[in-house]
Design brief:
The protein is α+β, with helices and mostly antiparallel strands. The chain has 9 helices and 5 strands; from the N terminus they run ααααααααβαββββ. Strands 1-2-3-4-5 form a 5-stranded mixed sheet, with helices on one face. The longest helix is centred in the middle third of the chain and has 20 residues, at about 75-90. The two termini are about 45 Å apart.
């Protein structure tokens, strides 16, 4: 039996009192922190190591012990995040209907098109790598799990998450090309082809 324990309950069980932040504040601070990297180990310490070194029992003891170990960490992290929030404020003031429309168009038109046409880019790059041509699969090939051909080799193109779905009933008996989305593009494994 699986039971979900909500954060609110965890805090109650551990006698932790925190103030509720206004709506969206936590989300914005979290986003600013991701960019500012204010709470990375370099700034606040390696927390898993620190908590293992801590021998106290309460959150008050933890706070006191932590601040003795890292006296400037909270202040430094706060300043990094506030600086990024200031950048956000200046940027938000520049956002108008035209910019929002550009963003929506890029998401709905461009990124959707790219996402749906990834197979073509993967086939073209594979053909380029082996100095050959490519073509899309015919409808009769698609029923066999073939997405296209690089040279005369039939290939199936799948996201890397496909590999973890071992229980899938589908049997594809052709060369597999796996890809995963990474920052700035995709990473493609042509290992079975090359």
């Amino acid at each position: 039996m699986k039971i979900k324990i909500k954060t609110k309950e965890i805090k109650k069980y551990l006698d932790i009192e925190t103030n509720e932040l206004p709506k969206y504040v936590s989300t914005l601070i979290n986003l600013a922190n991701q960019y500012a990297q204010g709470t990375r180990p370099k700034s606040v310490g390696q927390m898993t190591e620190l908590i293992h070194q801590f021998s106290g029992k309460t959150i008050k003891e933890w706070e006191q012990w932590y601040l003795q170990q890292k006296p400037d960490a909270i202040r430094n992290a706060t300043h990094k995040i506030l600086s990024m929030l200031d950048n956000f404020r200046r940027t938000i003031d520049k956002i108008d209907e035209t910019i929002v429309e550009q963003w929506v168009r890029d998401l709905v038109v461009v990124k959707t098109y790219i996402g749906l046409k990834l197979q073509e880019a993967i086939l073209k790059k594979g053909a380029e790598l082996i100095g050959s041509n490519y073509r899309f699969a015919e409808p009769s090939d698609e029923s066999k799990g073939i997405d296209g051909y690089i040279g005369e080799t039939p290939v199936s193109i799948k996201p890397d998450s496909y590999e973890s779905k071992a229980a899938l009933p589908e049997q594809i008996n052709v060369k597999m090309i796996f890809y995963k989305k990474v920052k700035g593009g995709i990473e493609v494994d042509y290992g079975e082809l090359i």
